[in-house]
């Protein structure tokens, strides 16, 4: 076991982990933060997307021990700060989620694009979300919701 | 003018509104079975057969049993004492045969990935460590991996008792195909090849089963589309009473039919929970999902079409072979897909001459069964592909040939050549709407200009019919305890709010939302005051669940009727309180009003207070029944057919074979949409699954029956970057069968998408004299067809 | 799949890391981990130890020094994408990096990791060949330099000894008349390419005076095709001859995406689409 100390959603956490435990299993099993999901564990589907030190990462391709000293934000934490409240509402209004399993990763990936500001084109939105698999929506509604949010934020500037 | 029941003031039926209760899913606060953790829970890992066909000679788990965290290791023989085997046949599919299948393979493994040993440990990782230390001695047997070879005379049967590998054969001969062929100006024959698919639900299959020894009751957390069916089957095969089993579905991370079937792993987990007296959890990883989730759509169809020079289609003729797995899947069988192909080919055209043969053949590959749009994509691709070929043969525009042969919009009711009955469809109105939406003349001009620059774009169409709202004809008549009716119980609580318990289930399509919309409308309350309970066999009426696009049409109708019944009961009480009669009263926005002028008389919260806390003030003989249950099954039509038409505009890079989807259109007629927003999104999601089929998806096997692309990098699912925007329009032809007139819509997108993409590619490649009738349309396939490789 | 068990060590210097590699012959280095952790999750490898070099300051930094651009091995792909020095002095890298996987992978993956892993389908080894880069390597015996053209030996193979660490990549500064092109053919954005080409050259008044064509996803390693490139030099670039040379200089493989014949056909298409624009005034194809 290795001891790690990190911040998760603003909370200081100290824990003992096995080196082989990846970050998402640590978040889900140890901390009960089940918002980050597992879809493939080979880094392809994006369901495990979380933020580490401000950057989006595949939580299944980061070991918990690598996050030692780091700052982890999951969908629960990002949601509670209100950072993506407008984006979440846009998803709901547009029905850009159906089963909801891809949604945490999709929201975090979308926010990663939106925080750069401006209004990305639909192609740019699709490109940025091209690493997040959704089987339910066919992506069109998701692109709409992200585009709507970008325009709203731009207008509010 | 009298309003129909669905035209009520403040009706939620037909309203495009966001689903209530979605916020938690956007916050990562969904509760999926894969999230569930119970005290003293064990994780199970299945050691799976590495061979497509092998005798299991011996299993040595002595080393594994001693490894850290391991609680128990169980083999097929041991588990067979707790869980009886099953056979996936139904009486109405005459001649369908299959062999008994166990939860863990006994003596013989019949597909690569079949579970052989169960390892129970404290964590999944420890169970996997132990699995590496189990030594199974296999004797490889020759695998059957080609459907044609499997069906050939003299082929070695996988199950000796069954005599051959033909699980099921269906033949149909309507009208006079030979005479029609003789009288045709052209007869075109073409082979259509379809890649095997699997669902790739983002949340892999997961189950938690918990046997409470004190209560002698099993609680099963399983994201099944049909929890009552699972309750029945688990009870049956564990030899306990149905009442001893409770199934809870929770949130489900995608299903599309994948999670409606009975899986060996699920039965094993239920049995292991009973064995251990502790909760047992299985959460499939992605690699095992590829080889253990049901597959589908593995067909080769030889099709023929006849046409006159004037543009009359004279006949359809198909010979379909589909390779399933070594067992017919339980309980819905692996024969329904082929059966539907036979039922549906040519069904959108008024062509009386139709012959079909379908053979369903055992193979040593992952078992197959119903997956979104079951059989429709095959039937549509064959039909619409043949129609385009016929148009080409006589030099007629593809739209014009369809105009001349699609059933007229006033032809109904009528029966198609295959025997399917139509109540009312709108092929022509849908085609009109589609052409208007896509501005076909503009696209043709764009296509011509691009061609002049050496850029090859194509436009393709696919008209289709879709089976929805199935009655007992689907399964019940065959002896399966799969309910085709659904029920709803609605109740007014002590504060005047409404709870509705429904037997349909939610996988993200919006079942809970439409039940709330229908119930709120039926009673007359604001939707915010309606709470929906789904997916709990202890707390919902007995019903079929959500599959075959039946949730809205059947479950919604039950909720509507239950809501009306509760409304009547409420008005009876209100009449007593207000010294009026029910006919003079109405409920609007949660308030009892005078029907004539809408004057508010009594808030429902006040009525509830009186009924629950001061019933002494009500007439002595009044039974204030503020709870009502109704069940519904369609009676007049075995299925509610819907129709639609799709179009694709795409570009083929003839140097690289790459295909770029530029745009997609769908016009769908699903009767009265309860929530058009949800219907449109179901259509879009379904379309993209069909686009995945057209371009990307295929389960690939080597000649030893090994699936060689069983991971997310090699099995290509459609991602956002390659998918087009999808325009959706509607025509509304309600069904007279039910009050709300809703048919189903969940599978329409998938039914036609691959067909119109294939037609568009062939349109793009028409200058090259090339026709491709195989999917997925990979760059290599396109280059080979063009002779560039 | 859950990874098999291993020990975890985090040295505080490159020297310490090398010593640990010497002590634990079954150990693997982890930096970004985007390839390694996927293979561990799939139980494709079973290292005894992971030695985490992901925080070593000696492996970081992008700077122009002595006529070369030195890129630290730990430079994350996301940094490569935004680095002004790379944009100025090695624009081929800046162009190629957009095609590497997706944003969430690029925030972790490193250039050193990609080069040391030598995946034949990866973009960066081909870029290293096209740029005529030099790799800086430290082992128990000290520091050595190796040309990229010698570094890649075969399928996931490099000349790195088990106790050596790649510390930096040195790229000659792009000349004023440098041109570059990059294109890959992928089924879906971010996928491994079916075939890819990284091209770097010099263009003057009489056409290209130098050209390096580096291919990936074709054969067991990133491959230069000097004869094909030579056919495109000068005032009379001969694409027909260059295409013929490709058949001789490339060793295309069969895999699930495409067979060898298809790959060669696609390579010829890329040759025209990437090298062709290099001859035009804009000089860039991507």
Q: What attributes characterize this protein structure?
A:
heterotrimer; B: 789 residues; alpha+beta; seven-stranded mixed β-sheet; six-stranded mixed β-sheet; 31 strands; 28% helix; 24% strand; globular; C: 286 residues; five-stranded antiparallel β-sheet; five-stranded mixed β-sheet; 15 strands; 33% helix; 27% strand
Task: Explain what you see.
The complex is a heterotrimer of chains A (about 160), B (about 800) and C (about 290). Chain A starts with a strand and ends with a helix. Chain A is globular, with a radius of gyration of 16 Å. Chain A is of the alpha+beta class and about 160 residues long. The longest helix of chain A is centred in the last third of the chain and has 16 residues, at about 140-155. Chain A is built from six helices and five strands, in the order E-E-H-E-E-E-H-H-H-H-H. By secondary structure, chain B is α+β, with helices and mostly antiparallel strands. Chain B has 20 helices and 31 strands. Chain B has a seven-stranded mixed beta sheet, sandwiched between helices. In chain B, a hairpin with a 5-residue loop joins strand 18 and strand 19. In chain B, helix 11 (about 375-395) runs parallel beside helix 19, helix 15 packs parallel to helix 16 and helix 18 packs across helix 19 (about 750-765). Chain B is globular, with a radius of gyration of 28 Å. By secondary structure, chain C is α+β, with helices and mostly antiparallel strands. Chain C contains twelve helices and 15 strands. The model of chain C has no long low-confidence stretch (mean pLDDT about 95).
Summarize the structure.
Chain A is α+β, with helices and mostly antiparallel strands and 157 residues long. Chain A contains 6 helices and 5 strands; from the N terminus they run ββαβββααααα. In chain A, a hairpin with a 2-residue loop joins β1 and β2.
SSE diagram, text form:
The complex is a heterotrimer of chains A (157), B (789) and C (286).
Chain A: E1 2-8, E2 11-17, H1 23-30, E3 49-52, E4 55-58, E5 71-73, H2 75-81, H3 85-94, H4 103-114, H5 122-128, H6 140-155
Parallel strand pairs in A: 1-5
Antiparallel strand pairs in A: 1-2, 3-4, 3-5
Helix pairs in contact in A: 3-6
Chain B: H1 23-26, E1 42-48, E2 54-60, H2 62-65, E3 70-75, H3 76-80, E4 108-109, E5 115-121, H4 124-131, E6 135-140, H5 147-151, E7 166-174, H6 177-182, E8 186-194, E9 197-198, E10 206-212, E11 217-222, H7 227-237, E12 245-248, H8 264-276, E13 280-283, H9 286-292, E14 295-296, E15 299-307, E16 313-323, H10 336-344, E17 354-361, H11 376-394, H12 398-405, E18 414-415, E19 421-422, H13 427-438, H14 440-452, E20 456-468, E21 486-492, E22 498-502, H15 511-523, E23 530-533, H16 551-578, E24 585-588, E25 591-594, E26 600-603, H17 604-613, E27 627-632, E28 640-652, E29 659-669, H18 676-695, E30 726-730, H19 748-764, E31 774-775, H20 779-785
Parallel strand pairs in B: 1-13, 8-31, 11-12, 16-17, 22-23, 29-30
Antiparallel strand pairs in B: 1-5, 2-4, 2-6, 3-5, 7-17, 8-15, 9-14, 10-11, 10-13, 15-16, 18-19, 20-28, 21-22, 21-27, 24-25, 25-26, 28-29
Helix pairs in contact in B: 10-11, 11-19, 15-16, 18-19
Chain C: E1 7-9, H1 14-23, E2 28-30, H2 36-41, E3 49-52, E4 62-65, E5 68-72, H3 77-82, H4 84-89, H5 91-97, H6 103-106, H7 111-117, H8 123-130, E6 134-139, E7 142-147, H9 148-151, E8 152-154, E9 157-158, E10 165-172, E11 178-185, E12 195-204, E13 207-216, E14 223-224, H10 226-230, H11 239-249, H12 260-278, E15 284-285
Parallel strand pairs in C: 1-3, 2-3, 11-15
Antiparallel strand pairs in C: 4-5, 5-10, 6-7, 6-10, 8-9, 11-12, 12-13, 13-14
Helix pairs in contact in C: 11-12
